[in-house]
Specification:
By secondary structure, the protein is α/β, with parallel strands linked by helices. The protein has one domain: Aldolase class I (TIM Barrel, Alpha-Beta Barrel), CATH 3.20.20. The model has no long low-confidence stretch (mean pLDDT 95). It binds flavin mononucleotide and the ligand CCCCCCC(=O)C(=O)O. The site of flavin mononucleotide (FMN) has 23 residues, from α13.
Length: 368
């Protein structure tokens, strides 16, 4: 019998076995009771797919375009920090795997390798994810470096005025990993009592700017000519504001359920946001995507693409660059089979009528 993993969950198990407990807990964990963490997955399960038959599906085209960049499938790499915790080649390996999969990698500001090292390691299309520090000059420098080194968009993460309460990290006294992009700019060494919990949390709470607000998008636009996507939108109210302030794209995200517990599962929030945005800017989604069918469902509800976070790190921890390649290939293959069996040869063929959401599902249950 083959021991090769056949799905993302099996990669998670391999990663759990491979990683020190503190790192696995940091990567896999969510905030507080981890209600939203479970819901990110379960909300996908409440959606059914309504297949069409007798459609010519002899050729399936999964390719799509995001901000003008052609990618092989609507599956992007979400920004996640500190890939060296999972594998010594860290983001260099991840970026090569993203390039091989012909997709976009969003590099986290908190990457283990610097944005310059990642840029020179491969020709993947790269976006740069930004946190805004109290030291605005530091954030400005980072944006300028990203622009100079060929990053094609800035992803402003807007859901982290402070770090969510991740109880495993508090218990494990999670370290604050070295921040290559901040070398010579900001120190991650924090002054803490010896019995203090998560050191990462202490650093973030000391350095990030909790006064960041909507008017600051104008500031960001004034320091870069790159398109700006805003990450962390969960309501139609904020989606409308994002369009009003002139962002170029929205990422529906609850930060992998690591920030506010009991915030909505992302796929449950998606449709109201898509309606509010009225096609003015692309809407992407991350959170809980583990199967090709999840991707199909998100696209049917109006997302242009999804991003995957933990599955990439699980691939990296289990099998390095090859693991990330395999995870991306698996998700692409699963999406391909979902499209084939649903009668959707191209991405544009996936429509709202190809899914039913929990309303119908709950009605059915009440009849049983
Ligand atoms: C270990 C880890 C580190 C993360 N680091 C960042 C980060 O540096 N910046 C950011 O915007 N989001 C970060 N995220 C959130 C991801 O971008 C993404 O929203 C989330 O992982 C999606 O959910 P998924 O893991 O279920 O795919 C991180 C998530 C994880 C699991
Ligand atoms: C500059 C250090 C920030 C680390 C935060 C990483 C993150 O977003 C996470 O969810 O963990």
């Amino acid at each position: 019998m083959s021991t090769e993993p056949v799905n993302v969950d099996e990669f998670e198990e391999l990663a759990r076995q491979a990683l020190p407990r503190m790192y696995y807990d940091y990567i896999a964990g969510g905030a507080e009771d981890q209600h939203t963490l479970r819901q990110n997955i379960q909300a996908f399960c409440r959606i059914t797919i309504q297949p069409r038959i007798l459609v010519d599906v002899s050729k399936i085209d999964m390719s799509t375009t995001i901000l003008g960049y052609r990618i092989s499938a609507p599956i992007m790499v979400a920004p996640t920090g500190s890939h060296k915790l999972a594998y010594h080649e860290g983001e260099l390996a991840t970026a090569r795997a993203a390039a091989a999969a012909k997709t976009i990698m969003v590099l986290s500001l908190a990457s283990s390798y610097s944005m310059e090292e990642v840029a020179s390691s491969c020709n993947a299309i790269r976006f740069f994810q930004l946190y805004v520090f109290k030291r605005r000059d530091v954030s400005t420098l980072l944006v300028q470096r990203a622009e100079r080194f060929g990053y094609k968009a800035i992803v402003l993460t807007a859901d982290t005025p402070r770090l969510g309460r991740r109880e495993a990290d508090i218990k494990n006294k999670m370290i604050a990993p070295p921040q290559k992009n901040l070398e010579g700019l900001l120190s991650v060494k924090v002054e803490v009592e010896s019995d203090q919990g998560s050191l990462l949390e202490s650093f973030v709470n000391e350095a990030f700017d909790p006064s960041l607000c909507w008017k600051d998008v104008a500031w960001l636009k004034s320091i870069t000519s790159l398109p700006i996507l805003i990450k962390g939108i969960l309501t139609h109210e904020d989606a409308i504001k994002a369009v009003e302030v002139g962002v170029d794209g929205i990422i529906v995200s609850n930060h992998g359920a690591r920030q506010l517990d009991f915030s909505p599962a992302t796929v449950s929030a998606l449709e109201e946001i898509v309606h509010a945005v009225k096609g003015k800017v692309p809407v992407l989604l991350d959170g809980g995507v583990r199967r090709g069918t999840d991707i199909f469902k998100a696209l049917a509800l109006g997302a242009q693409a999804v991003l995957v976070g933990r599955p990439i790190i699980y691939g990296l921890a289990a099998k390095g660059e090859r693991g990330v390649r395999t995870v991306l290939e698996m998700l692409k293959n699963e999406l391909e089979i979902s499209m084939t069996l649903s009668g959707c040869p191209c991405i544009k063929d996936i429509t709202r009528s190809h899914v039913r959401t929990n309303t119908h599902y709950d009605k059915l249950h009440s009849m049983l």
